[in-house]
Amino acid sequence: MASTSDIRDKLRQKRRAFQESLVRVRDDTQALVSMAMDVNRDSATEDLAGEEEPAETLRRSLKAQRQRRKKKLLEEMAVEESQTGAEEEEMEDGEEEEEEDVETSAVEEVSEVQSIQQSRGRSETEPETESEAAARSFTRSSRDLPPLPMSRPSSSISESSMRQRMREKLRAARSKAESLLQQEVPVEPASRLQSLRDRDTLTRFDRETEPELRHAPDGDSSEILGKVKFREAVRRVRIDAQREAGIPTAEEAYNFFTFNFDPEPEEEPSKRRKKRRPRSEQAEGGQEEEGEGEGEEEPEEQEREVEREPAREDDEEEEERDEEAALVRDGEEDLFLIEQSSQDFLEVRKAEYIGYNRRVQRESELLFTPSVRTVPASNKLPDNMQPRYLEEEGLYVGERPVVSLTNENILENRILRQDQATKWFGDDGRIIVLPDPIKESSTRPPLFHMEGDLDPSLQTVYRKAIKSKYAKRYMPGVGDTQGDYQLDVDVAGLIFSHHGLFSREHVLGARLAQLYDQHLSRQHKNLTRLLTDKLSGLRNTIRNMLELHGGQGLSEITQQRIAEYKQEVKITRQMRDAEQEKDRALLKNIVKVWKEIKALREFQRFTNTPFKLYLRREEVDRASDEREHEAEILAEVSELQAESWEDYEKKVTEYKQQNEEWKTWKKKQKAMKKKKKKKKKQQSQDEEEDEVEEESEEELGEEPTKPDPPEEPDLDAVERQVREKAARIRRKPGEPILVPELTASSNITPNEQCPRAEFGRRQDVLKRSLFVKVLYNDKEVSRTDSRALTADFRVHFGQIFNLKIINWPESIKLQVYETVGSSTTQLADVFVPVPEPSILTGSATSEQLEFSSNQRVTFNHEGVGSDVPFSFEADGSNRLTLLTSGKLSCCVSWAIGDDDIPLAPPMTHASAGINSGIMQMDAIACIGASGLNDMKKLGKWAAESRLDPNDPNNASIMQLLSVVSGGEVTVPDYFRLEQLQEEFNFLSDEELDRSRRFRLLRLRTQEVAEFRGYKFVPTLEREVFEKVFQDYEKRLRDGEIVDTKEHLDAHRALVAKYLQKVRESVVNRFLIAKHHFLLSDVVLEEEVPTIGVLGLNLFKLAEPKRPLKPRRKERKKVTAQNLSDGDIKLLLNIIRAYDIPIRKPQASKPSVASKSTRSVTETFTTGHSSQTAMQGTDWPFNQVLVRPFVEVTFQRTVLQTSTAEGPNPCWNEEILLSFSAPNGDYSTTSLQSVKDEVFINIFDEVVYEISEAERERERGGLYAHVERHWLGCVKIPFSTIYRQSRIDGTFKVEMPPVLLGYTKENHVVSDGGYDIVRNLTEGAFITLFITIEPQLVPGETIREKFDTEEDDRVLLASEFFEKDANKRFPDRPCLTTVIDINGKTVFITRYIRPLNPPQELLDASPNNPQETMELVARYVSLIPSLPDSVSFAGVCDLWSTCNQFLTLLAGDEEEHAVLLCNYFLSMGKKAWLIIGTAIPEGLTAYVLTYEQSRYLIWNPSNGQYYGQYDTFCPLQTIGCLINADNVWFNIQMYDAPMRISFDVTKSKFWKPFFSRAFSYPGLSSVQPEELVYRRTDKAAATELQDRIEKILREKIMEWRPRHPTRWNRYCSSTLRHFLPKLELSGGRDVAEEHRLELQSLLGEYRISGFPLHLPFSEIQPIIEAVYSTGVHKVEMSNVEFALAVYVHPYPNNVLSVWVYLASLIRTR
Amino acid sequence: MEWEHKLHILHLKVISIPLCSPEALLVPRKPRHRQFPEYDDLYCKYCFVYGHDWAPTSGLEEGISQITCKSRESHKLIWNFPLDITFKSTNPFGWPQIVVSVYGPDVFANDVVRGYGATHIPFTPGKHTRTIPMFVPESTTRLQKLTSWLMGRRPEFTDPKVVAQGEGREVTRVRSQGFVTLQFNIVTKDLKKLGYDTTPGSSEAPPITGLSGTDQPYTL
Prior knowledge:
Chain A is built from 51 helices and 41 strands. Chain A is an alpha+beta fold. Strand 14 of chain A pairs antiparallel with strand 9 (about 155) of chain B, so a sheet runs across the interface.
């Protein structure tokens, strides 16, 4: 705490210092300002002296005074400085506050001196003066002057005396100050805590009072005056500065330096005011300017302010001030009266701003502001009266007008202040109010004037609202970047077809050109030919139809059709004839015009146009031409004849009919007439009869004309006509075809040779020029350059205008103007259609737009003029009137932006009102999208109108109709998604299936295992070979047919198949889940740090840096995505091994000691000693006990360490193996499914001397032969390494039970009895460190939420339990729920249930429970192990039930553990499942049993068991214990089995899942009640045995391709006999016997070999295991091999496989 | 006998992709904050993403550019970083894409990502300029945004190649952050031989016709 108080003190000091400095700074500025003012005053007077006339008298004395005063001032400073210095010296033990003040004052003085100099210079540079100011300052200074000279005895001589005086003064002042401070003390802390402003006043107060107090006892009035003046000035300025608190404006700055901020003494202002006013008026007179007004007002304000000043200060301060004021007042009053001038009372200052608060304060004194608070009712009512509410009493009370509560309150408050306040209030305590005066309805009488009465100009007329015309014009989004629309108007040029300046020849020329154009276009269309073809086609059709039917049996329809066709033929023929006629006429015309031109040229003797017509003759074959011609004519004639015959026949029938009618009519008439006559005779007078007659007349109707019998057609005449016509419209047969060709090759007569009139015309032409204005929406936007009219009346502009538009395009108009000299006339307007949005620059074609002008132009030269009749004939007949006309070639299109985006407005908007040129021409475009909907109608129309499908004009319609599938033209009334899908199918489905390439591509996309990541799918079909699919197809086939051969066992094959299916379904599930992404998969984001982490980090920052202390850094984890081959390395550090078997001397006699029976109590040490004894006996014979080295095999890469010596070798070597993933796929899934194992084999390097004979043969090259003998191996699956990323520990080396030629150094054997704890188990150990470089991120378990049948409560609790456990002990695994094989979440205790082991096992040794247990464990371990993570890549652990496990005969550690645990439970043991971590498995499950007050830990995978205190127990941590009823989580401090207590009843050590709070709900087990075992077929086992042996034999021979492999049958059979014994003994304790047995049998051989023991799953692992031992690698020529296989069947097809492998080398 | 598999291979050669030349610009989101020290001293990382049927035959698949600073006038960052790469392929499927990620120091001089962007390498031979919009993943919460800003660990994509794919992108939230301009010079070989015609079609836009619409032989 001491330190904190120290700090606090320091802080306090610092703060004080800071305050000090603040004050100091402020003082500095104050001093500067005040001094500057003084100096200013001086300079003002100085300047004034030069200028002012009336003041001249004063000036001289003033100068002297001033100089004197200046000197004095300086001196004063000096004195004061020294004085303060002295003060400082003296005040050693003074109070801090005082010290501060003194310091500040000292500083103040110094700075004053400096500022004098500064401001002097400044004032000299700014010599502007105001006379008024000068005058005032003059008077002021004169007033000031007198005391100064006497105030100080001059300078240094009197310094000491001065000091003394000052000291005295100081003492007095201090005592005074002390007393003051004592008063102050209680207040001060509070004010300190207040705002800075308060502090300011405080310090100022100190400063102000202090020096004055110092002087006070002295009584030196002059000094006081000076001081006071300064203070005042300073204060004033400071207030100003505070107010403005910013940089002064120019004006302010100016005022600052020119104005005199003279202080006003604080004294009876009223008195002074009275005095001053008349005086100031006297003195200034006219000289006073506007400033005076200010000056007059200001004093008042200032005085008020001065008055107010003390009010603002604290009370204390006020007291102080009073004292001070009293002092000052006396002195000053005297002084003031001595010298007074009018200037004294006048002051010109700038308007002062009064702060709001202050104003409010001031106003509050004068004004009354009613409160807004609600007035209590009691105030408003007469005393002792309760408010009475009339309303409640049922009286009517009008509605009160709405007045806001605040206003009401204000009013009430105000009223209350008045006398008789209560009379304003009603009984209810509210202000008496009239009811709301506002009426609901209008009281104003309505206007009933009729409209007619109104002035007509005032009448209103209703008009419908009109949308502004311009509103729509603007395009949306203009101004944005995207809304940039641009029209490109390309004005290419124009050509006149007639112009006033045309000469006659030009007129003809234009006509010729026009005709020729026509001719060309006709030729281009070639309608004649088309129609001719059509005609012949129709004729052929008719002929065919007739022929087909043989002229008979024509059906009605056919006849109808023929008739139709005939009709069509007729029409077509007529059309063709017309066309032909036109063609011919055109040709004739061309020739005629050309002739006219020629004649004209001849006539006028000059040529104006360059036209020249050539007629090209195309000779034809006369004979064929004639034939055709004739045939044509004949055909036509026959048709016509037929037609006319038909016509005739029709007419005849008609005639007959009519005739018939006529005849009947005639008869009737006759009859009627007769009747009539009769009637007339009978009743002639009767009028009615007339009517009847009339009626009858009417009935009969008018008399039909008697039909003329039709003339028989004159066939000859028809033919004649046809021929005539042919002659007229067709080329005569044999006549050459004339093809006109117009060229512009003729020469134009030069100007000189022309007659005058023509010359004039030409000159006129030259004068003309044309330009085109571009008008957009009737506004001129631009115009082309003016171009001269050429002699051929063409103008080329070739200009493109880019119009950036914001209005909708309504019209685009081009105006053609002609300029002659200076006059410009408009020739014509040309309207250009607004283009479709699809018409873009670059793709748009230019259009020819015709224009004409009706201007009348006449010339007096050759020009024909416009709208003027003229004639080509000499006699003036045949007059022509031509108008100026021409074609303008232009093109309007939408521009394309830089980025290929058309700058066109959106389609929908634009197309509404625009008539595009294209629309007018294209029928289909006109129909538009809406028309297409009515396809049916269109089709009907097309059928009715018999559109010619060959006609190019109809092409678009025909196409449209053909799209709509010909016959049935129906608009589907359903909606089809992807209706164009078929269009985009680039292959038919069949083809897609057939194509190997596509199949390959598809399989790859489906991520089929074989094709996942398949590279370089060939481009061409033929390059994809069937071979690619072989494996895949094989696998597919295998799915169906079980390959019994490979599996050796039908049952296993079935199991494998089942497993495969399960795997597939799970993998599919997983694949789906894999494509679900979470944010964390895609985005890497820092978690929000918790407070703890932040605190820790902060703490770390404060930590001292220790560069020499090494820190462990986390390795960087690499995601599997960006990896490629060779990136991943497997790092193996082989450190050392223990208890490697040692070689046995060849000739050593059987050692009985080796099979030492050890008593229960025998300790390790004695055992060891016995061993050493034995070793000692062996040692002399063998130089080296063993020379082991380690060989690591991974993915067929083999690396080995150097050779070490002895049974406890130390290698400490690092081995780097590169890892390559299957298919180069480094994804997490792929890596997880890597099944490769790392084999760490220990070999003994044996060097044999080579026998003499061999040595000779080798010619001394080789003296020793190196042999390697396999001793044992450790297998670590890659998946384990991948999952754990780091494996570090000592592993038990899997060693064969028997190693021929080797013996264990320490053979500690336990023979029976639980009490023997094998604290040093037999077997060798190897210390390894394995990791993957770089570190890979292990795949996460699937996040899918699984189905479950568990209770929600249990699930919730388990989740909580696991989370809690994880939080407390993150390293300890905790498992409460697992996933069963169906993918459902199951609570773990459901798996534990006592289950019966096979009876055979129980029967094996009924008396020895321990042996039974071992046997059971062995049985369980014989079930092959298959890690889930391999089979179900990336998927979490799947737990199968025991019967599933036994059926599948494959499972992970947990299945083994569960089964073992259940067996133990059924055997009546106390057993638990341990969830923990072990090496090398990682997270695993073990079994714990409680036997004879000891806990045993069973490894279910290999049947080994360990005591709790076994050092070599692979189980490293224990997370939780599980039995059928509960789960206990380990909450002890340690988790190693050795250091924990297994007493689950202790809640201090174990946290139960089901506790009293959450009781066990009685979960039913998922396990079956009983396991049923099948007896294994012994015969099948034997069969399998033979097969394995055969296969292995073949394999070994295969692995030795260069050497002959000899088999020693005798040895093999011996070994075979031996294997069952091994099985029975569980692989123990038989080595010696066995060796001896072998030795005796095969004395002359050097045998090295061993039995291998494996659980049987498939043949492949057996082969691998055999291969890894490397027995086959012996390359001696005389080597022989022995191989024996034994398969021991256990119930339920659990097979134990023994392979005995030995190599024999004949020693002799 | 050895089974010989001869493949037709398309070749694509990207002669150079000067990142952002001539005016590579990573325009700050708020142009008015130009004077802000953000968005300066940036550098690019690039990598190519391509299908199974593609393989680079020369050139670097991944790389990093120099650090570039804004000039006083233009406020653009110009890398002008050329890179050459040649691909071969048997199948246009999985046409290569270039993924560009821009990094730069933030206020506390932590290297943070400033943008990811990807674009296909143009199909047609010739010179192309592509401006690709850049974006960065957003923080999930405001608090995280603050802490990430403080700690200089902005959210990043686990793998920049993610931006060249669609899978998994739906879970992200990104914010736009300027543009990078790339210029490609592409050479292809044997594309046409295999039936892939990537060159643009015959030039449209017939030349603007003369004065008279019909082709009159006498117009000169």
